[in-house]
Design a protein that fits this description.
mainly alpha; single chain; 12 helices; globular
């Protein structure tokens, strides 16, 4: 029997933790569906309140504004990916295979709905992250929000994957830069394939997840292997 996953985000994007109540979970599940259908610009708390049979004011008791709701959704997504990477790689001994598996999860994360989270459809949330997540970071308030811990989830995952890079090649100088580039490209290439196809060789009609995986694997390991590895004596001091 599957065990339900409870990912609690402990930061200031919300006024009341939505997972703690039935109304909060409905706010999350319906906001995901509506943002995907309408786009973030056309989505409003008034429309959300009407959809869930409640009031606009009830939504404001959980989130100060829709930007902070989007922060929560994107943060939840990265926390879920981090959980999945940790769960699916902890028994893989070979560091290259562990990194390949993590890359597979990054590119495939939105292809299946996780039955362990009943009120969130990860496939729809993935589409929101691909299309809308840049709006979380590209704001005038990003520095202040970073200090308040809004982006801990994506930074935690980046740090985890960067450590995997160093386990493959401890001499590689740019593990965080490489991983953050790969994480962004995993979504960006999918977006380009669908909307701006002249910017990529990835084609939406030809298994774009697999093609993106192949491209990112080439990018990742070409970069890592371009730096000569330390000898065992250098590694151990």
């Amino acid at each position: 029997m599957a065990t339900n996953i409870h990912l609690t985000l402990d930061h200031n994007s919300y006024l009341r933790e939505p997972e703690s109540t039935e109304l909060g979970r409905r706010i999350i599940s319906e906001s995901i569906r509506m943002i995907d259908a309408l786009g973030f610009e056309q989505f409003t708390f008034k429309k959300l309140g009407a959809e869930i049979g409640s009031t606009e004011a009830s939504v404001y008791r959980y989130f100060e504004n829709k930007h902070k709701l989007l922060v929560y959704l994107v943060s939840w997504y990265w926390a879920w990916v981090d959980y999945t990477v940790t769960f699916q790689t902890h028994n893989i001994a070979d560091p290259r295979q562990r990194l390949r598996r993590a890359l597979y999860i990054l590119t495939k994360a939105g292809q299946d709905d996780d039955p362990n989270v009943a009120y969130i459809d990860e496939r729809i949330l993935y589409r929101i992250v691909v299309a809308e997540s840049s709006k979380v970071y590209h704001t005038k308030e990003v520095d202040a929000e970073n200090k308040e811990g809004y982006f801990l989830e994506i930074k935690r995952l980046c740090r985890r994957l960067a450590q995997m890079v160093l386990e493959v090649n401890p001499a590689y100088k740019y593990p965080h830069a490489l991983i953050s580039t790969v994480m962004e490209a995993a979504h960006q290439q999918m977006y380009f394939a669908r909307h701006l196809p002249s910017l990529t060789e990835i084609k939406e009609a030809q298994h774009p997840e697999e093609e993106t995986m192949h491209f990112l694997e080439h990018l990742l390991f070409s970069a890592i292997d371009s730096t000569p590895q330390l000898s065992k004596q250098q590694t151990h001091g």
